[in-house]
Design goal:
17 helices; two-stranded antiparallel sheet; mainly alpha
Length: 366
């Protein structure tokens, strides 16, 4: 863990809001593709399109890069040695790999069960995989790890998959973060990410650059609070870039990536403000414990819920679309929080196992 209490506090505060951002990224579509064709609006009006872009493709898009940066920072902070690395690999087996396998096997089971019932097939088809009853052995492996389609069957777990790959590659990253190579290495990764020149399917450019940037920030002498003094200008730049990207989403200027670069220090500074508000601090930290469960369980539930709601209501007006855009994910997050609380109360061991939190708790207690 970081040795700076203020840094630890900011990280804890950010966990849940960033998970909400991930949910809204996956909530972008208004025209939901069904087997029989799109349901919902394909032309929802300029102002609705602008707001949806602003939230899902703007504000929310900082969530994943910031998670990778935090993960890289936490993995490398406190120095490097092989004993620590071995211990961290063992820890990630429980906190990453076991939950990863559990939730992807669960998604496979849910899709298989739904695809076997004719009335439910419209919510359970996949655009990336064939029907599960026709899976080959390779299809199962592909569904678990996204070998050829980039995403596993539980799509949001590409983040965990790429994170596990970077953890395995950590010795190489440590070598490249040597004092003379560190800054050039990160700058090269920045260029590859910004220019869409990354050659690998996974780990992705987002994962590699931001994880390594977080690792770089963990090096002695780097100040995580340095940019706070420029927060007003950075936040203003972030808002301007969000507006421009939402108004001109097809601009060749990579406005989305520029917005991310301004958005990360903005979110980091806002976490500092939240840390100074006792009630808000306590609420966000408390919600952070449920963050992994919401992350893990929101898909495929969100996709299924959107398909059901849009098929039932077939919304066409701008206000209706915008209302559903906010209502569906918020209701799902609230429901998952209630389910998490019930599971934690009735089956704490299982809940800890499927979220990796039981291992973290045991290690902290030790």
């Amino acid at each position: 863990m970081p040795n700076n209490d203020r840094t630890s506090s900011r990280i804890e505060i950010l966990r849940f809001p960033l998970i909400v951002g991930v949910v809204f990224i996956h909530n972008y579509a208004t025209a939901v593709i069904q087997r029989e064709g799109p349901v919902g609006a394909t032309n929802d009006g300029a102002w609705v399109q602008f707001l949806r872009l602003f939230v899902s493709e703007g504000l929310a898009r900082i969530a994943v890069p910031l998670f990778f940066a935090i993960s890289g920072y936490l993995f490398f902070v406190g120095g490097w040695d092989w004993t620590k690395y071995t211990a961290k690999l063992h820890r990630r087996l429980h906190t990453l790999l076991i939950p990863y396998l559990f939730w992807n096997f669960l998604a496979l089971a849910v899709f298989a069960a739904a695809q076997s019932v004719p009335q439910f097939r419209f919510v359970a088809f996949s655009t990336r995989f064939p029907p599960i009853h026709s899976f080959t052995a390779f299809d199962y492996v592909n569904a678990l790890f996204g070998l050829t389609v980039n995403y596993p069957i539980s799509a949001q777990f590409w983040f965990i998959r790429d994170l596990m790959a970077l953890v395995v590659l950590a010795p190489v990253i440590h070598l490249l973060l040597g004092r003379r190579l560190a800054l050039p290495f990160v700058v090269v990764l920045l260029g590859l990410w910004f220019l869409h020149a990354w050659p690998l399917l996974w780990p992705s450019a987002d994962a590699t650059f931001f994880f390594c940037a977080g690792a770089y920030l963990s090096l002695p002498g780097n100040d995580l609070e340095y940019l706070d003094r420029f927060c007003a200008w950075i936040c203003a730049g972030f808002l301007v870039l969000l507006v421009l990207h939402s108004a001109f989403p097809d601009s060749p200027l990579n406005l989305d990536k520029l917005a991310i670069l301004f958005g990360l220090p903005s979110a980091w500074w806002l976490a500092r403000l939240a840390a100074g508000t006792i009630r808000l601090n306590a609420q966000l930290v408390a919600l952070g414990g449920a963050g992994f469960f919401v992350f893990a369980a929101h898909q495929p539930l969100l996709t299924i819920l959107i398909r059901v709601v849009y098929k039932a209501l077939n919304p066409s007006g701008g206000l209706a679309l915008l209302g559903l855009f906010f209502a569906v994910p918020i209701c799902l997050i609230a429901l998952l929080l209630l389910v998490y609380r019930a599971l934690l109360k009735t089956m704490p061991a299982l809940t800890g196992f499927i979220t990796g939190s039981s291992y973290r708790t045991r290690k902290e207690a030790a």
